[in-house]
Design goal:
The chain is α/β, with parallel strands linked by helices. The chain has one domain. Helix content is about 15%, strand content about 15%. It has two helices and five strands. Strands 4-3-2-1-5 form a five-stranded mixed sheet, with no helix packed on it. It starts with 10 loop residues before the first strand and ends with a strand.
Length: about 120
């Protein structure tokens, strides 16, 4: 996965814990995208685009325009959780590692969608 920070002044990435997604810090800010706990690895991986389209169609342009305030997280943590409803949970910073199968929940089963300016 290329480091998007060298491509633009500001980049955001959206990740899930799908085996098809990177857990690496590849953007200036990285968010764990909330998905349903029963979502397959493939569906987790591809859920970011429909999620972003849904946000834009509902009038929420904040993710597309990168308008959320973020606090710098440690390299081993995501900068927050992007919820299904479009909110940012910045107080909850999950680790950038796939949880063990018995600890997965709806907030930890989540794609890489990237927006950059």
């Amino acid at each position: 996965m290329p480091d998007l920070r060298v491509c633009a002044d500001l980049t955001w990435s959206f990740h899930t814990f799908s085996v098809f997604d990177t857990q690496d810090a590849v953007a200036h800010a990285g968010f764990l995208l909330e998905t349903d706990a029963e979502t397959t690895e493939r569906d987790q991986h591809t859920s970011g685009i429909p999620w972003l389209v849904s946000q834009v169609r509902s009038g929420n342009m904040s993710w597309l325009l990168m308008q959320h305030k973020t606090v710098v997280a440690r390299d081993e943590e995501f900068d927050g959780i992007a919820t299904v409803s479009g909110k940012l949970l910045s107080d909850d910073r999950p680790l950038r590692q796939r949880p063990h199968e018995n600890t997965k929940n709806s907030r930890t089963r989540m794609p890489v969608v990237t927006t950059s300016l």
